[in-house]
Amino acid sequence: MGAVVAENVRRSFDGREVLAGIDLTIGPGEFVALLGRSGSGKSTLLRAMAGLDSGYTGRLRVPGKRSVVFQEHRLLPWKRVLDNVTLGLRNATAQGRAALGEVGLAQHERAWPVTLSGGEAQRVALARALVREPDLLLLDEPFGALDALTRIRMHALLQELCGKHEPAVFLVTHDVDEAILLASRVLVLSANGRLALDLPVDLPAGRDRGTPGFAALRARLLTELGVSEEPAGVSVAR
Known about the structure:
The chain is an alpha/beta fold. It has a single domain (4-224), classed as P-loop containing nucleotide triphosphate hydrolases (Rossmann fold, 3-Layer(aba) Sandwich). Helix content is 31%, strand content 24%. It contains seven helices and nine strands, in the order βββαββαααβαβαββα. The protein has helices spanning 42-50, 81-85, 93-102, 118-130, 148-165, 176-182, 214-224; strands at 4-13, 16-26, 31-35, 57-61, 66-69, 136-140, 168-172, 185-189, 195-200. A six-stranded mixed sheet has the order 5-6-7-3-8-9, sandwiched between helices. The radius of gyration is 18 Å and the shape is globular. The chain starts with a strand and ends in a 14-residue tail after the last helix.
C-alpha cells in the first residue's frame, strides 16, 4: 500500500478545472517531485494532500502524520526558534533541540526569527516539519527564495535528513535540475490539469549535473514542459 493514493482527484476554481482526474501512488519512503508551469495546479494538489483544501472530488488517501514546508518559512516572529520548532507539541523540548541539532542550528534555539538569514529560517522550518516524524513530508517550493549557494547546501541537508527519517516526500518545484537532483521519480503536470509524464530517475545517489544521463533526462522534462533548452538551474516558471 502506498503512503499516498490519489484516484480521479479533481479540483475546480470559478468553473475552471485545475486538477482533471489525478491518479497517483507514492510509496513509503519514496521521493517524488512534481514539475509544471505556474498555475498548472501543483500547489493545489499539495494542499489537498496536506489537508488544507477539502474542495476536491475523487479519492485521496494520505498518512495521518504529515508535515509541510512552504517557500516562506512561516515562523511565528513572537516565538523563539525552539518554540517555533515545537509549536503544538507537548513536552517536546528534547526532540526540538535534537531537530535543531540535525539542521545545524543548535546554538540558535533562543534566537528570534527576525535575526535569522533566509537559509537559517528554512532550516528551522525543516526542523519543525521533521520533529513530528511525519510519514509524508510535503515541500512546496521550499528553496525557491534562496540564493544559489544556499540552495545547494539545503539540497544536501534535505537528502541527509530524508535518508535518516525516511518519510515519503512530495516536492513541488519549478526547477527541473532540483527535481532530478533530489527525487527518485519526477512527474509533470500539464496545463490541462493532468499528469503528462511520470519518470523514474535512474541515476546514482550523490548525482550532479555532470552525471551520465542527467542531461538527457533534463532535456526530456524540458520538452514535456514545452521549454527550449536553458542554462542549468534555470526555473521553468513563466
